[in-house]
Amino acid sequence: MPPAQAGARRWLMGYRLAAQLAEECPGTQIISVADSEADIYDIFVDAQEQETDAEFIIRAKEDRSIPEKDPAAGPAVYRKVKDEVQSSEVRLRKTIELSQTPKRTARVAQLEIQALQVRVKPPHARSRLPQVTYNVVLVEEVNGPQDGTGVCWLLITTLPIEPITQIELVIDYYVARWMIEVYFRTLKTGCQVE
Fold first, then answer.
1. pLDDT at 102
2. Are 82 and 115 within 8 A, CB to CB?
3. Structure confidence at residue 24 (pLDDT)
4. pLDDT in tens, 71-86
5. Phi and psi torsions of 177, nearest 5°
6. Ramachandran region of residue 47, left (φ > 0), alpha (ψ -120 to 50) or beta?
7. What average pLDDT is seen over the chain?
C-alpha cells in the first residue's frame, strides 16, 4: 500500500479480519459495511484474489474508471463507473427514513436505485495491480432538498444484485450502518470515550 494510503491500512485490516472470521465460521454470512474511507483498491484485489466468503458493502469515494475508453472525452480518457450505472435502467424505487444528523434534518427520502456489475481498472499510479469486478448500486434521492444533503450513494459490493430483492438488501445493510455511527458518536461525544 502506498504511503499516501497508510492511514487507510486499518480498513484493509478490518476487511482481512472479516475474511478470517468468515473462514472460522463457515455457514455464517460475514459482511463488512463501511463508508467512503474504506474505498481502497487493495480491498477489492484482496476479495477477488483470496476468493474469501466475506462480503463487503463500501460507499464509493472515487469514481473509478472502467477499461473502455471514452472517445468523446479524449483519446486517453476512460469511461467512469458512475456514468455506466447512471445510464442503466432504474431497477427499484424505495422510500427510507433519514434520521437527523448535524448536517441534515430528519426526513423521508424517495429513492431511485440502479445497479450493475462492472470491471474496473486499477488506479493509474498503481497500474501493475489487476483489474477487479464488483457490483455497484447507485442510490439517488428524487426531488431531495437543494441544500447539499440529498442522498447520492454509489455502493460497491460483492453481494449479488439479482433479483431486485438482493439490491434492496444491500441498501438495507448500508442504512443499518448509521445506527452503529450514532452509537459510536454517542460514546465519543456524550461519554467522552476515545
1. 81
2. no
3. 95
4. 888 888 999 999 999 9
5. -60, -30
6. alpha
7. 89
Which residues neighbour 112 within 8 Å (Cβ) at sequence distance 6 or greater? 90, 92, 93, 139, 140, 142
- Nearest in space to 5 (alpha carbons), one of 47, 37, 32: 37
pLDDT of 112 over the 70 cut? yes
> How far apart are alpha carbons 65 and 77 in whole angstroms?
9
Tell me the domain boundaries of the chain: 59-190
3-state secondary structure the chain: CCHHHHHHHHHHHHHHHHHHHHHHCCCCCCEEEECHHHCCHHHHHHHHHHCCCCEEEEECCCCCEEEEECCCCCCCCEEEHHHHHHCCCCCEEEEEEECCCCCCCCEEEEEEEEEEEEEECCCHHHCCCCCEEEEEEEEEECCCCCCCCCCEEEEEECCCCCCHHHHHHHHHHHHHHHHHHHHHHHHHHHCCCC
Average pLDDT over residues 35-41: 93
Q: How do 92-98 and 31-34 pair as beta strands?
A: unpaired
> What are the grid coordinates assigned to 35, written together?
463508508
pTM score > 0.85 for this model?
yes
Q: Is the pLDDT of residue 188 over 70?
A: no
* CATH architecture, domain 59-190: Alpha-Beta Complex (3.90)
Distance separating alpha carbons of residues 156 and 134, to the nearest angstrom = 7
